[in-house]
Amino acid sequence: MKKKGLIENKRLLSLIAIGILIAILFFWPSNYYIVSPGKAERLAPMIEIEEAADIYPVEGDIMLTSVSMKRASLIESIYVRLFTPDLVELRSGDFLPPGVDMDEYFDLMQEMMEESQMKAKAVALQKAGYETKITGEGAQVVKVLEDSDAYDKLQVDDIIVAIDDQPVELLTEVINKVQAREGGAEVKVTVERNGEEKDFLIETKVSGESSAQPSIGVLISPYQREYELPIEVSIEAGQIGGPSAGSMFTLEIYNRLTEEDLTEDVQIAGTGTISLEGEVGKIDGVKQKIAAAKEEGADIFFVPVGNQQEVEGVEKEEIEIVIVEDIDQIISYLEGI
Fold first, then answer.
1. pTM (2 d.p.)
2. Superfamily classification of domain 133-222
3. Quick one: pLDDT at residue 179?
């Protein structure tokens, strides 16, 4: 009896140990994030235009698309590494620069989303025949990362007013000009400090293997940003962050302010940043966003020219993929359908 009891105790301890191991695998977070197709969401419910404007009915839908990013458990990270499921990426935490936590990253994404919405409103209204004005006085440095070439050069509260001698007014202008450079390239950064302008040569750095975007190693926020729009347009996109819905915000607002319906009962999706000149800029996660659009039944997907190579092998039978450089090309394409 005593020997049988010992065996049963060992079995019980083994089961407990296995249970603990399984729990760790399923619930213990790894150092990786899973990036997968997110959602394609209709923009009409997110955007309100004041009643004073001439608003025209539309038949089809314009959708923004997003990627899903979540912290992977140990078992999820093992599964993705072993089976490499389609359109699912395992991204290590080094896509965040050293010294930047996830809350700071999401705060920056929300700032970029807000600025993207402002530019979308301005561009759409301009295309619809209204006069608009958006101004800023640069971007304010709120944090300098120790593991960067900017450390001991730039300071908190510096105002970045030019990149490579080109004046910048908005936060996204600073980010776009820096990210247009190669990792390891020197960027001339002009800041205003205590009423004086100072120039610094700062080497860009890519955060890690999971990131393709160079950075000068600072966190920034808008400085003295103001805008004047003749019509009040409000956008409520929930927790979606970043600037990549700019082109679709622009298209949705423009379509409702002009008599000709560009959708004509067509389901439209796309992605891309928007500049004040109407240029559609490169984004991340384009394949995942196309998959989300397919799932929602989109007929057309607009892709920035900067992402053209990434979509060359994407299955196009269920959806028409259109490469564009600016919002005018999107409007012209839809007018020609």
1. 0.82
2. PDZ domain (2.30.42.10)
3. 84
